[in-house]
């Protein structure tokens, strides 16, 4: 199933498509890549996904690393997740929230993404 959000009336002007991955799993990551390639082949080259899922618990280290590495090569590199109040510990995937867990991976991925631009 493909979860997405975009401006339908302005899609020809905006031309951006972002997938919402409801969970953080390898299957969801694979499905998002396949869906993004299909969207690109259908004429919309600007796509991306929420790195390491949109909701749920923080992903395991390897999944987060793979998600960052794959996002380097997509047109939209985005950290985004739901924010449900102020839980402790927070499961928000923003770099400043999970830097204590994945700091080196985040820095390297963002650096490579900017170099490739």
What's a concise summary of this model?
The chain is α/β, with parallel strands linked by helices and about 120 residues long. The protein has 4 helices and 4 strands, in the order E-H-E-H-E-H-E-H. Strands 1-2-3-4 form a 4-stranded mixed sheet, with helices on one face.
Task: Report what the structure shows.
This protein is α/β, with parallel strands linked by helices and 117 residues long. The protein has one domain (14-116). The protein contains 4 helices and 4 strands. Strands 1-2-3-4 form a 4-stranded mixed beta sheet, covered by helices on one side. Helix 2 links the parallel strand 2 (17-19) and strand 3. Helix 3 (61-71) packs parallel to helix 4. Mean pLDDT is 72; it is low at 9-15.
Give the tags:
117 residues; alpha/beta
Shape: globular
Order of helices and strands: EHEHEHEH
Largest sheet: 4 strands, mixed
Beta-sheet strand percentage? 5-15%
Structural class: alpha/beta
How are the secondary structure elements laid out?
Blueprint (H helix, E strand, L loop, with lengths): L3 E2 L5 H4 L2 E3 L6 H16 L5 E4 L10 H11 L4 E3 L16 H22 L1
Parallel strand pairs: 2-3, 3-4
Antiparallel strand pairs: 1-2
